[in-house]
Amino acid sequence: MRVVFISTEAVPFAKTGGLADVIGSLPAELLKKGIEVKVILPLYKTIKESYGEQLHFVKETKVTLAWRKCYCGIFELEYEGVTFWFIDNEQYFLRDGLYGYADDGERFSFFSKAAIDLLSVLNYQADILHCSEWQTALVPVYLKSLYAKNKFYKKMKTVFTIHNIEYQGLFGWDVLEDLLGLGEEQGAVLEFHGCLNFMKGAMITCDRLTTVSPSYAEEIKHSFFAHGLESVVKENSHKLSGILNGIDRNRYNPAKDKALPVHYSCTTMEKKVLVKKALQEELGLSLSEKTPLVGMVGRLASHKGIDLVAAVFEELLSEPLQIVVLGTGERRYEEFFRKMAETYPDRVAAITGFSERLASNIYAGSDLFLMPSISEPCGLSQMIALRYGTIPIVRETGGLKDSVIPFDPSTGKGNGITFGSVNAHDMLFAVRRGQVLYHDPVSWKQLMKNAFLTNLSWARSTVEYVKIYQDLLR
């Protein structure tokens, strides 16, 4: 079986979010199952700068995009056994960032078209094309229209994965012919309230549709989560599956993580407090082993539940705990946490920006990890926290609900603390439950052990993807 992933991000080459972690891990896991896997990425400026000497030039071709004839260079690099093909066009990809440009519609229309053309140029007969997010959503649309009569592509099947339905790729109707080179029939597939919606087109034309957790697959059937696409989700629910993402357990491993000052494992849990002490020292917090430290790492955005935290922050600080926040996002949230850190310097630390080293130390050094998301398709932070023996406090939504099971002291089962409603005080009470457990040595030791033993690797998810691929090829 031959599977080709078409993506705009993959660790270690380019990353803005969880998509990169998935494409950086899943292909290698499929390779272990005996599946032949390739990955197609744009050749961004940062990739040229970091991996230029390792890139092997394969071929040059021209890609037709409506009336345009665009240069397309094909480069190759093998990473951890997986072959990556990079599509080069400096007009579109020689930029400082990955997204956020006025011509993003054109950039990723070109990339989707070039990815399809690459297969015939290299004479690589794929079985499955696996695409993700709106940036590659035109791949199944193109296959069902412009390439429908091309024998080379006739047997290829497509899987489209929604990582976050909020970002859909909305563009003006005028680009249909001028940019995409498509006619009115395809326009009807893409049409969405008077504009074109790339994600909608993929949802309709792909052979199988997936999301990144079972709960999210159900949630996006409802308007609160679907951002206008709930009817499209329901109409295509017969081909929809929710598969929980995993994490690379070798990469996230407190026994080997080079960022940590002290290594520990499930059998040496007592050493975890030394990481906490080092983190308190580094961030200027009071050195207190018995004060629970609550960590937060991620984007500071409203859908991450930051308003809930801000609403009861003073009440949180009425409890004997410390809080450390690492992330960037909306300016109002950055300023709020900065002000709180200035007001309570020995109890609150706020770092605007991102540091892999500091993130690892927060995952490992915190006692509790707070993720009060309003919506969370999958979430990786709660999985990483569990891997480091840190107890997640999460709202029951999407992948958070699927990966964090409420701890029951009477049975000793469960790996975290959860709350259901979008309510600041429900979140506050969940934090207080975490405090109570923290000061109960027997329960806390069992809870930490459960967290350590939670296996959220890619092994299970890979089996589910393989089943989808096999079903398609039948």
Blueprint (SSEs and pairs):
Blueprint: E1 2-6, H1 18-32, E2 36-42, H2 45-51, E3 56-65, E4 68-79, E5 82-88, H3 90-93, H4 104-121, E6 128-132, H5 138-143, E7 157-162, E8 170-171, H6 175-178, H7 184-190, E9 191-192, E10 195-197, H8 198-205, E11 208-211, H9 214-219, H10 223-226, H11 230-235, E12 240-242, H12 272-283, E13 293-297, H13 306-311, H14 313-316, E14 322-327, H15 331-343, E15 348-352, H16 356-365, E16 368-371, H17 381-387, E17 391-395, H18 398-403, E18 417-419, H19 424-438, H20 441-453, H21 458-473
Parallel strand pairs: 1-2, 1-6, 2-5, 6-7, 7-11, 11-12, 13-14, 13-16, 14-15, 16-17, 17-18
Antiparallel strand pairs: 3-4, 4-5, 8-10, 9-10
Helix pairs in contact: 1-21, 12-16
Q: Can you offer a commentary on this structure?
A:
There is one protein chain. With 474 residues, the protein is of the alpha/beta class. The protein folds into 2 domains: 2-246 and 459-473, 3-Layer(aba) Sandwich (Rossmann fold), CATH 3.40.50.2000; 266-456, Glycogen Phosphorylase B (Rossmann fold, 3-Layer(aba) Sandwich). It has helices spanning 18-32, 45-51, 90-93, 104-121, 138-143, 175-178, 184-190, 198-205, 214-219, 223-226, 230-235, 272-283, 306-311, 313-316, 331-343, 356-365, 381-387, 398-403, 424-438, 441-453, 458-473; strands at residues 2-6, 36-42, 56-65, 68-79, 82-88, 128-132, 157-162, 170-171, 191-192, 195-197, 208-211, 240-242, 293-297, 322-327, 348-352, 368-371, 391-395, 417-419. The strands form 3 sheets. A 9-stranded mixed β-sheet has the order 3-4-5-2-1-6-7-11-12, with helices on both faces. The protein has a 6-stranded parallel β-sheet with strand order 15-14-13-16-17-18, with helices on both faces. It has a 3-stranded antiparallel β-sheet with strand order 8-10-9. Helix 1 links the parallel strand 1 and strand 2. The longest helix has 18 residues, at 104-121. The mean pLDDT is 96.
